[in-house]
Amino acid sequence: MLLLYGLLGGFLLGVGRLPVPWQALLLSIAIYVALPLLAGYITRKSVIAAKGKEWFNEKFLHFLTPVTIIALLITLVLLFSFKGEVILSNPLTILWIAIPLFIQTVFIFCVGYALARVLKLSYPDAAPSAMIGASNHFEVAIATSTMLFGLSSGAALATVVGVLIEVPVMLMLVKVCLRTKTWFNSNCD
């Protein structure tokens, strides 16, 4: 994803005839995708080297889990505080953004989940595959659109609405996965 994200983003923006400098696109990917990935990799390696894999899995990850949830909530609160008035004053625009996002997310999930069943994947492989496939990676989209077009742009609004839609839709799809767990082979190869 990291290698193809910039190329795919540039291609799709070019199709939409949006002039976006490649440097800005690559910089946003470096800052918001590559840097956190590298920081996570270095942290994992250094903590495991210092404390061991068991300590990393049992202590460090349990400490880090609430931190990531709190960081996500802070991000959402900040985004909605900047865009809350626009969202409330333009319900029809929000609906026009939300409906296709809902349909797209559910459709891609269904295709991925059905394909996983046809391929006889185990549930631990099928569920995450379908969920990741359906994800729109709005955290990167928000960062990129804000950096390229500014916080008051329509692109930033669309990405904020995307998060507003994606979070409950993904939670709904998690419920679907949990209820259909028996459709899949249970072995964890």
How would you summarize what this structure contains?
It is a multi-pass membrane protein. This protein has helices spanning 2-15, 22-51, 53-89, 91-118, 123-134, 138-149, 154-179.
Structural key phrases:
single chain, 189 residues, mainly alpha, 7 helices, 84% helix
Notes on the structure:
The chain has 189 residues and is mainly α. The protein has one domain. It contains seven helices and no strands. Helix 2 runs antiparallel to helix 3, helix 3 crosses helix 7 (154-179) and helix 4 (91-118) runs antiparallel to helix 5 (123-134).
| Alpha-beta content class | mainly alpha
Oligomer category: single chain
Choose one word for the global shape. globular
Terminal CA distance reads 24 Å
Count of helical regions = 7
Radius of gyration: 19 Å
Low-pLDDT residue intervals, each spanning 5 or more residues: none
Report the count of strand segments: 0
What share of residues are in beta strands?
A: under 5%
Count the domains.
Answer: 1
What's the mean pLDDT score?
82
Q: Helix and strand succession? A: HHHHHHH
Residue share in helix: over 70%
Describe the main β-sheet briefly: none
Protein name: Arsenical-resistance protein
Family: Belongs to the arsenical resistance-3 (ACR3) (TC 2.A.59) family.
GO molecular function: antimonite transmembrane transporter activity; antiporter activity; arsenite transmembrane transporter activity
Subcellular location: Cell membrane
